[in-house]
Design goal:
Helix 4 links the parallel strand 3 and strand 4 (about 145-150). It contains eight helices and four strands, in the order αβαβαβαβαααα. The protein starts with 15 loop residues before the first helix and ends in a 7-residue tail after the last helix. With about 260 residues, the chain is α/β, with parallel strands linked by helices. The structure holds zinc ion.
């Protein structure tokens, strides 16, 4: 898989003797979580994994060289059962996904590290990563952090409808890959589909509302796309990678400097 992680920030490129020599109390490890799942007719299965790596790699490049922050190899397989029925979607169960994070947390703690960031770019993993962030804290005493997608960066220029309901293979993901891996985007295969309309408020929303319904993609988006990829440009993708990388780098810096609010 293509990577943007600087070699000097790639944990798996170290030897065990180099790991032994790291300052364990302050080193920040990042465990990326993503997915291999359908992304419509026009984007590759690895979209969430590639975006994770693209944003994280650009963020890591902004950190001062002396700050000990390393990216672990990603957990590429996520809980993607909402996309089952589309060939190529490779999903693991919630219990498997959480067990892998728990086992890696045990190994990280056994290696002597104290600080771990779970960096997630797949919506189907969100609630599980949130649970595991607290469980790793409670079970192993690791100082854990959760970081999501663009780190709160605003994607300037996306219209309100796309912003609200363009959450899978829409303008943003397409633009990021038009910048990062243009050879993997198929613009002649774009399809458009919205689950709901922003100007026709409904009580039951697919996500982010007080009352929601559990959806499977095949129920609501025959092509697999939720959003409109047509306005996507490589130029916007490049701009959004830059603003997201700045936010992600700022969050990682805050996590690196974080200390307990209360010292027992
Ligand atoms: Zn995606």
């Amino acid at each position: 898989m293509k990577t943007w992680i600087p070699d000097a920030r790639n944990f798996a490129y170290l030897t065990w003797k180099q790991v032994e020599g790291l300052p364990k109390d302050e080193t920040l490890l990042i465990l990326p979580t993503a997915a291999i799942e359908q992304h419509g007719h026009h984007l590759p299965l690895a979209t969430d994994t590639l975006i994770n790596n693209l944003l994280l790699g650009n963020a890591l490049a902004l950190l001062p060289a002396e700050m000990p922050v390393y990216a672990l190899p990603p957990i590429c397989y996520g809980k993607s059962n909402e996309h089952i029925g589309f060939p190529g979607t490779l999903s693991v169960s919630a219990s498997t996904f959480m067990a892998v994070i728990r086992d890696l947390g045990a190994s990280i703690a056994a290696s002597g590290f104290k600080k771990v960031v779970l960096y997630n770019t797949h919506g189907g993993n969100t609630s599980l990563v949130d649970v595991m962030c607290r469980d790793l804290r409670a079970e192993f005493g690791l100082r854990t952090f959760y970081l999501s997608g663009a780190g709160g960066a605003k994607m300037e220029g996306i219209n309100p409808q796309e912003s609200a309901y363009g959450f899978h293979a829409g303008e943003m993901e397409t633009a990021l890959l038009l910048h990062g891996t243009p050879e993997l985007v198929h613009p002649e295969k774009y399809t458009v589909n919205y689950i709901a309309q922003i100007d026709a408020p409904e009580l039951l929303l697919p996500e982010n509302g007080p009352a929601t319904f559990a959806w499977l993609t095949r129920d609501i988006a025959p092509s697999g796309v939720m959003g409109d990829p047509n306005p996507a440009t490589a130029e916007n993708g490049e701009r959004w990678v830059k603003t997201a990388a700045e936010k992600v780098a700022a969050a990682l810096t805050a996590m690196y400097h974080y200390t307990n609010r209360f010292q027992p």
